[in-house]
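If your schedule permits, I should be very grateful for your opinion on a structural question. Kindly check, if you would, that the fold set down in the C-alpha cells agrees with what the sequence suggests. Thank you for your consideration; the sequence and its C-alpha cells are set out here:
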Amino acid sequence: QIIENEGQHLNEELARVHILSLTDELTELPNRRAFMRRLDDEVGRVQRFGYPLSLVLLDLDHFKSINDIHGHAAGDAVLRNFSINILTIFRHHDLVARYGGEEFAVILPNTDQNGAQRALQKVQKKASATPYHYNGRTSPMPTFSAGIALYQPGEPPSSLIERADKALYQAKKMGRNRIVQGDNGGDAEVSQPG
C-alpha cells in the first residue's frame, strides 16, 4: 500500500511538472514550448484534412516605456491583465501562448486570414475598452501590432512563423497599432482600428 501511494504521488508530481513545463509562469498561458508542439500538431492536421490555418504574432506597442517609467512590476501587471481580460476573447479551440517578452502567438485552426483579421479587430476593440490597474492607478491598455500568416501547403512550421513575424515587423514599421496580413504571393493588407 505504501509503495502504491508513493507511486501515485510520484505520478501526480510528474504530471504537475509536465504542466508547469508548458505554462508561462507570469501569464499562466501556454509557453513557447507548448505553442511549438501545438503548431506541429495543427500543421499535421492541415496536411491531412486541408482546412485553413492562420497564425498570428502580436506584440504590445511601446511596452518598454511602461517598464522604464513605471517599473517591471507594472509591466508584469499589464501582461497579466492583457492575458486574462483581453486574449480570452479568442475561441476555446484557438491556442493563445506567450511567445516571449511582450509578444504573443495565436494559432487559429480552421480560420483564413479574413477570419483572423476579424478576431484581432475584436481584440483591439476590447483592449481599447479595458484599462489595467496597478498601484492604485488606472491606465489605458497599450495598443498592439499584429502580423497574420495563412499556412501554405507543404511549408514547415518555421516558415509560417517567419512570415507572421515579417508581417508583425511591417506593422511595427508602419507606425504600430496595426494588423498586417502577411503575403501569400501578393501584397500585404493593413488595417488600423476603426
Notes: The first strand starts at residue 53 and ends at 60.
